[in-house]
Specification:
With about 550 residues, the protein is mostly beta strands. It contains 7 helices and 30 strands. The chain has 4 domains: about 110 residues, no CATH class; about 70 residues, no CATH class; about 110 residues, no CATH class; about 180 residues, no CATH class. A hairpin with a 2-residue loop joins strand 9 and strand 10.
């Protein structure tokens, strides 16, 4: 007789195990098939068709939608000029001046596989502004405004005052190549987006650009502008050229860090930390701009310290070096006023901590200047006149570090009650205009164009120029009263005028409501012992209509 094998798997236990497994399986099935889809909706790769969108919410992480109703997007190798589409309102409003197409106009920059085209149109308000790019899709005779690609919130919220929605429809549409990052690391160099000035806006505006390197969204370009009289020195401006050929201003970050007050982190030769401020040299009354030195001018250099990476910083040992001559010439500008301290001799200047040069990781040699030894100049007495068509409350902000103003410029700018005759009421007092002095946030324009006039013809020439530039009798008289005592007494004088466009980039204005007509002029002048040849400027002005803003100013050397 066989022995019975004792087991724990009795029929009752086996039944319980089967029941538990069945119940668990059912619960998991219910969760994954019914509950979880409600908690986590499925992600779809299908791009919705473009729809009109009166209200757009910006997204920080745009979703690529190249494959859509319009098909795959193919970028052109060069932009193609086309006619401007008839999509603007073509009228004014209480809050906006009239908008019109500006140079460079409209370009076709890409094509979809469906046959639709991607356009970039540049539109310019008659207020103080640079051209604003808008992206459009043209498809079978219809136009779609890509509202989600309007970077400027000021215009984005009021596109109904710019575009005729019976002729163009706003849509939400994401193109990943048109969303650049604010920072890029290219060829061992850090770059950051620069929003402090109004640069060129389209690739056709650049003269002889050079490719520094590439980013995922386009090439990083630079343009060098050689300094006259200082061969081997050039100011440099950087642009990120997006796939649609629009440009964004970028700036190179120094390979060594600095404090918020621009004191670079490095140790002097004795091991002590640097405590001197150094920054990019400024020209005129603009902000500092990168200055690149030809390597041939860096011979005969002496080390003054090392940064945290062990890289050396230098000054030059020869007073005949053009870099030294440039820095010393800039130092002397504006230091001849009666109460000014004595100007250092060149030998004394050579021993001063006036500047340093260093080499970037890509091999470029750059110049940094101690502000205590920099040019002493400001944008001198820019005066703003406001002429609305009726009594209007007007707000004005200036893109500049303002040192003097009347009435007092507050953190939020000026808000005045402007009358048609030009009278401005502010905090219980009346003023004929708004006055400010300071340093613009943008780049000071070149002075390689203009006029050279003799001393005997100076006053009559200036009065004629002011008339051509659109100033009325009172504005011209105010200009001459302020600037005549400050003009050089040399045999010849160079006169270079900056236009509204130049001033919008040097010291942009924000004016609400926007004027219908804007006239901004600025004079840079210099005394000459003998006449020189210059490219002559063509002077003109727009006719005044509607709410008009006028501003004049000049380079005030302290």
């Amino acid at each position: 007789m066989k022995a019975k094998i004792k087991t724990i798997f009795s029929p009752l236990i086996i039944g319980l195990i089967i029941g538990v497994l069945f119940t668990s399986t059912s619960a998991f099935a219910v969760y994954f098939l019914a509950i979880k889809p409600k908690l986590t909706p499925p992600v779809s790769n299908i791009t919705p068709s473009p729809q009109p969108s009166p209200t757009i919410t910006a997204t920080n992480t745009p979703i690529p939608t190249d494959n859509s109703e319009f098909g795959t997007l193919h970028w052109y190798s060069a932009p193609k000029k086309v006619s401007n589409p008839n999509i603007l309102l073509g009228s004014t409003s209480p809050d906006f001046g009239g908008f019109d197409f500006a140079d460079p106009g409209t370009y076709r920059v890409a094509e979809f596989s469906s046959g639709a085209s991607l356009l970039v149109s540049f539109i310019l308000p008659e207020g103080p502004s640079s051209p604003v790019p808008f992206r459009l899709i043209s498809d079978k005779g219809k136009y779609y405004l890509i509202e989600s690609l309007i970077a400027d919130e000021y215009y984005k919220k009021d596109i109904d005052k710019i575009f005729n929605f019976t002729k163009v429809k706003p849509i939400v549409y994401q193109i990943k190549d048109l969303y650049p990052d604010p920072f890029y690391f290219v060829k061992q160099t850090n770059f950051s987006k620069d929003g402090s000035f109004m640069p060129a806006v389209f690739t056709t505006e650049l003269k002889n650009p050079t490719v520094f390197g590439s980013t995922p969204v386009g090439d990083l370009l630079f343009v060098d502008s050689p300094l006259s009289d200082y061969s081997g020195l050039s100011t440099r401006t950087y642009y990120l050229r997006l796939k649609d050929f629009t440009l964004l201003a970028f700036s190179r970050n120094s390979r060594f860090g600095s404090t918020d007050t621009k004191v670079p982190y490095f140790n002097n030769l004795d091991g002590s930390p640097n405590k001197v401020t150094y920054s990019a040299p400024k020209t005129g009354c603009g902000s500092g701009q990168e200055l690149v030195i030809n390597s041939s001018l860096t011979n005969g250099r002496a080390s003054i310290g090392r940064d945290g990476q062990g890289q050396e910083l230098f000054r030059l040992t020869s007073s005949d070096n053009l870099v030294v001559k440039y820095v010393y010439d800039q130092y002397k500008i504006g230091r001849d006023y009666p109460s000014a301290p004595p100007i250092l001799t060149l030998n004394q200047f050579m021993d001063a901590p006036a500047y340093l040069i260093y080499q970037e990781n890509n091999g470029d040699w750059l110049l940094l200047v101690n502000p205590d030894y920099a040019i002493q100049a400001e944008c001198g007495k820019p005066v703003i006149y406001l002429y609305p068509t009726k009594d209007t409350q007007v707000s004005v902000k200036v893109g500049a570090d303002i040192t003097k103003s009347q009435p007092l410029y507050s953190q939020n700018g000026w808000t005045v009650l402007a009358h048609p005759n030009g009278q401005l009421d502010y905090q219980g007092k009346s003023y004929p205009n708004l006055f400010w002095e300071g340093t613009g946030w943008g780049i000071y324009p070149d002075t390689n164009q203009g006029f050279v006039v003799s001393q005997k013809d100076l006053i009559s020439t200036l009065k004629n120029h002011l008339k051509l530039l659109g100033l009325n009798n009172q504005e011209s008289a105010d200009f001459m009263e302020f600037w005549t005592p400050k003009l050089p007494t040399t045999p010849f004088i160079r006169l270079t005028w900056f236009s509204t466009t130049d001033m919008n980039r040097l010291a942009p204005l924000s004016v609400t409501p926007q004027p219908d007509t804007v006239i901004r002029i600025f004079l840079d002048f210099a005394g000459l012992d003998k006449s020189v040849s210059l490219i002559p400027q063509k002077l003109s002005s727009p006719p005044r209509h509607g709410f008009t803003l006028v501003e004049w100013g000049g380079l005030l050397v302290k």
